[in-house]
Prior knowledge:
This protein has 248 residues and is of the alpha+beta class. 32% of the residues lie in helices and 22% in strands. It is built from 7 helices and 12 strands. Strand 10 (234-236) and strand 11 form a beta hairpin. The chain is elongated, with a radius of gyration of 24 Å. The N and C termini lie far apart (48 Å). Residues 115-119 and 128-155 have low confidence and may be disordered.
Amino acid sequence: MGRGMYPPQPTIYVNNLNDKVKKEELKKSLYAIFSQFGEILEIVAAKNLRARGQAFVVFKDINSASNALRSMQGFPFYEKPMRINYAKKKSDAVAKLDGSYVAKDKKSTKEKRKAPDQGGDAKRVMEKAMPMMGMMQGMMQGMIPPGMQPPVNNVPPMPPRPTPPQTGSEIPHKILFLQNLPPETTEMMLTMLFEQFPGFKETRLVPGRHDIAFVEFEVDQQASQAKQALNQFKITPKNAMSISFANK
């Protein structure tokens, strides 16, 4: 690596990441592969050009960070081997937990900003802000969930049709059936989770259904090994993945 190893701490610095991956997808994928080592407090990834290809993963404790560093060093992530080191400084999230957090003084920065003190200056500022305010209002209105909008002509909306529950099998099979997946699940995220097991062949998402998927291995025994290791694995803090064998 280009720099020496820093002293162990709960935050690890990950670089040599694929800079073509969008920020949100990158953070979700990092969470998917690193959460197996312990509780993650936050993942920081900037989208500006200078900070692309790098991220910080903040664990709750040093042991989790150390295990992640040792296990994932050089792991092929979006076709590039990750380079991992401990971060130079403690993150704010960890500092708040151990009581050492000190809020940054923003007073001096604010004082340096020149506030408009002339009536004409204030008017020009408001004129510039009005288009942005209108755009933000439109965005917020568009973000109101459909169920929260008043029904047209006072006719109550039809309740959504319940989706019949699907069940897998406990008879060993080379294809695994995954359930309770979060909406942000991607084929790449699942592939990175399962390709670490021998015999992995492919991941198949189900069109129109974000909550289920299939993962195929070469033989039943290899699928059983992956099922035993990843059943109830939390892709997100609220979604524990349920794995069973696909029906033969």
